[in-house]
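REVIEWER CHECKLIST
Item 1: Sequence provided? yes
Item 2: Single chain? yes
Item 3: Sequence as submitted:
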Amino acid sequence: MSENRFGLVIFDCDGVLVDSELITNRVFAGMLNELGIRVTLEDMFERFVGRSMPQCLDLITKMLGGPVPQHFVEEYQTRSATALRSELKAVPDIETVLAGLRVPYCVASSGTHEKMQTTLGLTGLLPQFRGKMYSVTEVAQSKPFPDVFLYAARQQGVAPADCAVIEDTPTGVRAGVAAGMTVFGYCALTPKQRLIEAGAHHTFERMRDLPGLMSGAN
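Item 4: Structure as written out by the authors:
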């Protein structure tokens, strides 16, 4: 990948590095159903995936027409952690892609540092990202605003125009585009057209195809 023009590769975490989206959103959907909000897994990917927890809580409040139960977040975190411990895996081929990168890389997530520590730790990816994990909890505005991507680029000392963003949700894609970065949309779970409509410059379905796609990017 040494021929490509990028000075930094910024990965999203959930759904890009770790195969957590199906697991956590199944838990989330179940809890919403318990509150009387009838949603499917497809609904979750349409409305919630890629958003921060505060943004999700705002949506739930509107859907409920009232406040979210006091311990909802804690219960979600407990149930998700249990499910992740038994089911979570790294995204197929991500270890090979990381090993082959010839430029710096980092992760910028809508999740908390605690969540990244957990998911990357469970999948064995944490050593590759120590000291280069960035969370929306460190910036003013969550995705689709560009704050966390711009923050990651500043911390790594790379201009936004020289950064590649790897994202799997329309919300994340919009954030990368707003940051002035080149966005590669990973569409293993999200329909490709949704990522294209959000502004993705390139799309791919298999992580192992990313190096070649990046090398050929203009």
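Item 5: Key structural point noted by reviewer: The two ends are 13 Å apart (CA to CA).
Item 6: Recommendation: ____
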